[in-house]
Amino acid sequence: MRLVIQRVSEASVSINGNCKSSINKGLMILVGIENDDTKEDIDWLVKKTCNLRIFDDEEGVMNRSIVDIAGDFLVISQFTLHARTKKGNRPSYINAAGPDVAIPLYEAFVKELHLVSGRMVGTGEFGANMQVQLTNDGPVTILIDSKRRE
Questions:
Q1: Rounded to whole angstroms, how far apart are CA atoms 11 and 149?
Q2: CA 114 to CA 108: how far, in whole Å?
Q3: Which residue out of 55, 73, 79, 109 is catalytically annotated?
Q4: pLDDT digit of tens for each residue in the chain (150 aa)?
Q5: Residue 34: partners with Cβ closer than 8 Å, 6 or more residues away
Q6: Known catalytic residue: 6?
Q7: Burial class (CB in 10 A: 0-12, 13-18, 19+), 126
């Protein structure tokens, strides 16, 4: 499972011109799921995400987590995070899980993120054509892959 985490001052996702979810200060997370991802990947990523100290303290040092600042989450499914670009110019998505595997894992990730953080988790709609808007604060962007836990 692969995440792109962006610290935002605001973010929203719209489908067909209608706002599905929006947040103010918090984290906008793109989630890419592979066929061999498990509940263990979810648990590790949720713990890591909730404890990431990427928000400024009173001295301007990134020393606070999303839980510390009472921020919210916007979680968007993003199969293209597993694009393979080694050959040719058209990305291959063979490593991305299909909906039968990805939807339950995506929903489990969202649920666990809410349970562990106690914070609101806005979402997009799996498989929909979504328009995501955000103001990246910093900018701060973190990549985390559950298969690379070094």
A1: 28
A2: 10
A3: 79
A4: 999 999 999 999 999 999 999 999 999 999 999 999 999 999 999 999 999 999 999 999 999 999 999 999 999 998 888 888 888 888 888 888 899 999 999 999 999 999 999 999 999 998 899 999 999 999 999 999 998 877
A5: 1, 2, 82, 95, 96, 97, 147
A6: no
A7: middle
Reported as type and span, the H/E element at residue 29 is: strand 26-32
DSSP-derived letter for residue 59 is: T
55 is catalytic: no
Round to whole Å and give the CA distance between 93 and 68: 37
What residue ranges do the domains of the chain occupy?
A: 2-145
Q: Annotated catalytic, 133?
A: no
Q: From the candidates 6, 49, 78, 123, give the one annotated as an active-site residue.
A: 78
Q: Where are the alpha helices (DSSP H) in 6-142?
A: 39-51, 99-117
What is the CATH architecture assignment of 2-145?
Answer: 3-Layer(bba) Sandwich (3.50)
pTM of the model: 0.93
